[in-house]
Recover the amino acids of this structure.
């Protein structure tokens, strides 16, 4: 019973966050109940009741013979304070997928408590400029960036308070950052591989600042005790060779999932079935299509709440500078 409820809750979050973000638009026909039930490992009846519950709550509407359609997100009052949420997109898709959706859900929950309304902007990382920031800021009191916008944006002058999720640079105190705790994550990973007594470590990471910081810190810890470690940046090539006795650390679940899919296509089972691997961020817990592998997971709804609370603090104290908040993840085994 507990597992079925957890799976149905994931279906609820999946639909709510995408409606809120505009991925599923008002009037759009959703995938069939049977298809959603299969994706979230639910019985048809449980999935159907979950969809009916969302109808009652105002997210969906049921049209007999046609299926379930999206309604506009439950209306929020047009409060005096409006905050802009900037979502990183690439090829018309939201980067970091499920994480951004869940962070947005946390932002929305906290905003409602403070009578704050939200305005969502979709901006490609390469297209963020100071002119665009000023244009967005003109219609809101503050901004929350969700995405690695500091990857390409080396300097920024902000006309309003801002917070950043998945951003490491604070731009001289202009941006409050809320991220997974780098040191705690590295120590958990170090302990995880240490218990297995691996002969060598291989770290795969993105070049984006937050992921690179985790990777470099992990390499430093391994070298400090005389261990052997190899750092590989960028998406690995499809034809990888894996060795027994080696620990493979991926600084994002998305990268580990991609490699695991390649491995399964060649070997018939996910990578974690044959080799010691670890991911970071917990995306595999909220994406039903991901393979089951160990991950250091963060509650991204809480990350979103923390970012909104921090921005709210600065809106109430305009002279205050941004600060960095680090939230500890938790090692979750398959």
């Amino acid at each position: 019973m507990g597992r079925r409820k957890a799976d149905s809750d994931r279906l609820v979050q999946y639909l709510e966050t995408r409606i809120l973000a505009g991925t599923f638009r008002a009037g759009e026909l959703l995938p069939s109940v049977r298809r959603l039930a299969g994706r979230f490992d639910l019985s048809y009846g449980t999935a159907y009741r979950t969809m009916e519950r969302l109808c009652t709550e105002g997210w969906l509407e049921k049209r007999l013979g046609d299926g379930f359609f999206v309604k506009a997100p439950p209306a929020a009052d047009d409060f005096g304070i409006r905050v802009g949420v900037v979502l990183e997109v690439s090829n018309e898709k939201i980067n970091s997928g499920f994480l951004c959706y869940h962070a947005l859900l946390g932002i929305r929950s906290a905003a409602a408590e403070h009578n704050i309304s939200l305005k969502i902007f979709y901006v490609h990382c390469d297209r963020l400029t100071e002119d665009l920031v000023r244009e967005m800021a003109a219609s809101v009191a503050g901004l929350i960036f969700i995405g690695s916008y500091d990857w390409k944006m080396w300097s920024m002058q902000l006309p309003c308070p801002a917070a950043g999720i998945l951003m490491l640079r604070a731009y001289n105190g202009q941006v409050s950052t809320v991220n997974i705790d780098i040191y705690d994550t590295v120590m958990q990973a170090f302990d995880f591989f240490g218990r297995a007594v691996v002969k060598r470590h291989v770290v795969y990471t993105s070049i984006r600042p937050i992921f690179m910081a985790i990777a470099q810190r992990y390499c430093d810890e391994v070298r400090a005790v005389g261990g052997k470690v190899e750092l590989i940046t960028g998406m690995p090539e499809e034809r990888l060779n894996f060795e027994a006795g080696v620990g493979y650390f991926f600084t994002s679940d998305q990268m580990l999932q991609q490699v695991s899919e390649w491995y399964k296509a060649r070997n018939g089972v996910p990578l974690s079935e044959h080799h010691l691997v670890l991911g970071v961020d917990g995306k595999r817990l909220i994406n039903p299509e991901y393979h089951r592998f160990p991950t250091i997971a963060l509650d991204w709804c809480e990350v979103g709440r923390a970012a909104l609370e921090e921005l709210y603090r600065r809106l109430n104290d305009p002279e205050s500078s941004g600060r960095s908040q680090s939230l500890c993840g938790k090692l979750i085994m398959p």
Remarks:
- The radius of gyration is 21 Å.
- Residues 5 and 320 are 43 Å apart (CA to CA).
- The chain has ten helices and 15 strands.
- The mean pLDDT is 88.
